[in-house]
Design brief:
Strand order of the largest sheet of chain B: 3-2-1-4-5-6-7-8
CATH architecture of chain B: 3-Layer(aba) Sandwich
Structural class of chain A: alpha+beta
Oligomer: heterodimer
Shape of chain A: globular
Helix content of chain B: 25-40%
Strand content of chain A: 15-25%
CATH topology of chain B: Rossmann fold
Distance between the termini of chain B: 28 Å
CATH class of chain B: Alpha Beta
CATH superfamily of chain A: Beta-grasp domain
Number of helices of chain A: 3
Helix content of chain A: 25-40%
Order of helices and strands of chain A: EHEHHEEE
Strand content of chain B: 15-25%
CATH superfamily of chain B: NAD(P)-binding Rossmann-like Domain
Strand order of the largest sheet of chain A: 2-1-5-3-4
CATH class of chain A: Alpha Beta
Number of helices of chain B: 8
Radius of gyration of chain A: 12 Å
């Protein structure tokens, strides 16, 4: 299936793009995030995933512009927009 | 009772008092209000400037350190001739020139565990413009403890986020970010116009809260991206197990 993945905050700098269309094998959000971590490297992955591989609490995830609970991640469908957002504090 | 306006103040603020729902009553409430701005650089500078220009009665500004050349692309209350000197002196001087009717208390320190209680006690509302999460979390915790509204303004590169925290009603900062974000660094890409955008949005949220007009961003985060010109409001949810506001 194909997703649109949007990167917000520091993730955008690590990925080098604001948004991209991405073919994925699984509709599982965690599988998608792990595959993105493999593609974009350690700094990118460290923002999203803790050392034990779990999702960091400071990450906000939106599916089709709606925030989702991290302990109840929905299955993704073809054409969905997945937005990954990190905390920022610039002043 | 909010203080009366003088005839001079009516002349200065006349054009904003034409704003629907604000009027002289809103201006009087603003005059009777006090706000803490921490810190007062690329984001907090425009916040302090716009609050002073709009006629807030009192500003408490917390900002430590001496001015560096790299501050000057965005910190609009600083001047080139002040490089190497305390930032807070430039800030208070510029605000005094802008609006001598505004009482400005300059604190030459950033927010710490030692001073946060006393800083928040002095004001009705807090504008969080700090570049470090430890300061942000301290202000959040103290605002929740004292039951005071907190306007959270943040930016990175060409993106910004603004939300309003009303203790006991909305998610607090620790609900949104339950841990210290691991990759955040003190130095970040910034154009002054991007941080000023977050600051100006935050100021209008504060003015609305203080004067009692309009719906605020309470419980929502406004996200903007000046690279793509996308803007959206993201609903936020409280965490019942939040260590800061869970019992409030």
């Amino acid at each position: 299936m194909t997703l649109t993945v949007n990167y917000l905050g520091q993730l955008r700098n690590f990925a080098g793009v604001e948004s991209e269309s991405r073919d994925v094998e699984s509709g599982d959000v965690m599988d998608v995030i792990r595959s993105l971590g493999d593609a974009y490297g350690e700094d990118f992955a460290r923002v999203l995933l803790a050392d034990d591989g779990s999702l960091r609490p400071s990450v906000m995830i939106l599916v089709n512009d709606n925030p989702v609970q991290k302990d109840a991640l929905p299955a993704l469908n073809d054409g969905d927009r997945l937005t990954l957002m990190t905390a920022i504090a610039g002043g | 009772m909010p203080p009366e306006l003088t005839s001079e103040e009516r002349a200065v603020y006349e054009w904003q008092m034409w704003s629907r729902g604000f009027g002289e009553e809103g201006q009087r409430r603003l005059k009777g209000a006090a706000a803490l701005v921490s810190r007062c650089g690329g984001l907090g500078g425009p916040v302090a400037q716009e609050l002073a220009a709009a006629g807030i009665g009192k500003l408490v500004i917390a900002h430590g350190g001496n001015l560096k050349p790299s501050d000057l692309n965005r910190q609009i209350l600083m001047t080139h001739d002040w490089i190497g000197k305390p930032r807070i002196e430039s800030i208070t001087r510029r605000l005094g020139e802008l609006n001598p009717r505004c009482e400005v208390t300059g604190v030459p320190e950033n927010v710490t565990e030692e001073n946060v209680e006393q800083l928040v006690e002095q004001v009705d509302i807090v504008f969080d413009c700090a570049p470090l999460f430890n300061e942000r979390f301290l202000m959040n915790q103290e605002c929740v403890r004292q039951g005071k509204p907190l306007v959270e303004c943040a930016m990175f590169d060409m993106e910004g986020q603004v939300t309003v925290i009303i203790p006991g009603q909305t998610p607090c900062l620790s609900c949104i970010y339950p841990e210290m974000p691991p990759a955040w660094k003190r130095q970040f890409p910034v154009f002054g116009a991007v941080s000023a955008t977050a600051g100006c949005i935050g100021v209008m949220e504060g003015i609305k809260i203080l004067s009692g007009i309009g719906p605020s961003l309470a419980g929502q985060m406004l996200y903007y991206d000046l690279r793509t010109m996308n803007m959206q409001k993201i609903p936020l949810q409280r965490r019942p197990d939040c260590a800061v506001c869970g019992g409030v």
